[in-house]
Each structure stands twice: as C-alpha cells, then as structure tokens.
Amino acid sequence: MSGAAASSLPEMLGRLKLTALRDRLDVLLDEAARRELNLPEALGLLCAAEVAHREERRIQMGMSIAKFPYVRTLEGFDFAAQSSLDPKQVRDLAACRWVANGDTLLVQGPPGVGKSHLAVALGREAVQQGYSVLFTSAMALITDLMKAQAEGRLEEKLTRYAKPKLLIIDEFGYLPLEPHAAHLFFALVSRRYERGSNLVTSNRSVSEWGIVLNDQVVATAILDRLLHHSHVLTIRGDSYRLREKRRSGLLKSNAAPAPAGASA
Prior knowledge:
Radius of gyration: 24 Å
Number of domains: 2
CATH topology of the largest domain: Rossmann fold
Protein name: IS21-like element helper ATPase IstB
Family: Belongs to the IS21/IS1162 putative ATP-binding protein family.
Largest sheet: 5 strands, parallel
Domain AAA+ ATPase: 101-236
Keywords: ATP-binding, Nucleotide-binding
InterPro entries: AAA+_ATPase (IPR003593), DNAC/IstB-like (IPR028350), IstB (IPR047661), IstB_ATP-bd (IPR002611), P-loop_NTPase (IPR027417)
Oligomer: single chain
C-alpha cells in the first residue's frame, strides 16, 4: 500500500462507517505485526474487532430500549432456594426458541419467589440473541392503554406494544383491573397472537384471571390465545425477603405470609 493510501485509510474507514476499526487501527495493526499475521489473517483480525464493537453496541441499545427496571441474570438466580424449579428447563428457555416461535411463557407463583428476576434475566438473554424486547408492569401497561384510548391514540399504543418480538408483562394479578381494561388487554393480546412472544409473571393461577380482569368471558378469550402456544414455570416456595428476615431474627418462622398485593 502506498504512503498516500495508508494515510487516507482512517478517512476511508470513517466514510465506510467502520468507526471502531478506524479508532483502533494503529493498535490492531501493531498486534497483527507482532503476531506476524499474513494478509488474510490480519484482515480477519480487523473485521473481528469491528464486528465485536457493533455487537456490543447492538446489545447496549437493545437493553436500553427494553427498559428493564434493574439488572438480573440467570447466573444470579438462587435455584437452590427454589427447589420447585428445574434449572435445565430454565436453561432451555434461555436458548429463546420459544421467542423465535412466538410462544408465551407464563411464570407464576407467590410474591417474592423470583418471578421478576427470571423475567428480566430471560429478557436479557433474548436481547443478546438479537430479539427486540420491551418490559412493562401490568398496571403501567393498562394505564398507558387507557390513557391512550381517552386521548384517541389507542391504535398508536397498540402498535407500539405489538412491535417488540418479546413483550414482558410483570406483576399481572396483583391488583384487579377495571372492567373496561380487560377489553384493552384483549385487544393487545389479539394483536400479538402468533406474531410476537409474551412473558407474563403473575401471583394468580390462570383459573383466577377472570377475577383479576372482572370479566370471565374476556379472561377466557385472552387465555385461549396466550396459552395456545405456551410454556409454564410454576415456582413454589417462600419469599426471598421473608427468608432473609427469618434468618436475621426479624420475623418468626411461623409468621403469616405476605399479602397477595405484595411486590414480586
């Protein structure tokens, strides 16, 4: 390569939008020389650096768009404390084939057993594997849909919530919904049916959804669509928070369980 071509290389890389390669060019060329790489090997090193940078940026952007309330990972989940869960089943779910197929994952159990932790962790796995994800609490979702309907923007909101490949709806069932809200939730579930995946965490069994939605007919229609292609994780056990309080002596072992409306 001529001196002129070499000097203009950073500019050309910038025009090609290979900014990571441009910014690390000298370091990468020094590494290629130190390792005595031939031309194809050196080119592979340069391309690998650019691909790794773009992948890192994609994941960062996906995590930001997903709006996870906190960072949780499968490695940080205490499977030993929740013996009702099969770690192999959870690892299989982390492969995200169910997301690719547009299936629903229902995570159910009493408050405080790690449902939200699993939802966030599996959502992060989906982002890393290239799927678009959006996380919302059930109440925030319903409030947003009701507000949009009152403002004449319901279609806009339904389109927004229908767009991500995986929609995570956390804490469904902790508070009963207004009767009309059930129809809005049905509209969203119908919009996503066999198009996108849903992950729903709930402290209520599906037999109680009619109570939560204040409409047994609509609840049946919603469950018919959600459970058509579905997987279910049921967690049975004590709340992590109550367990820690018992260990510290702040709560006796025979204390009453947390009320149904407690945070997950």
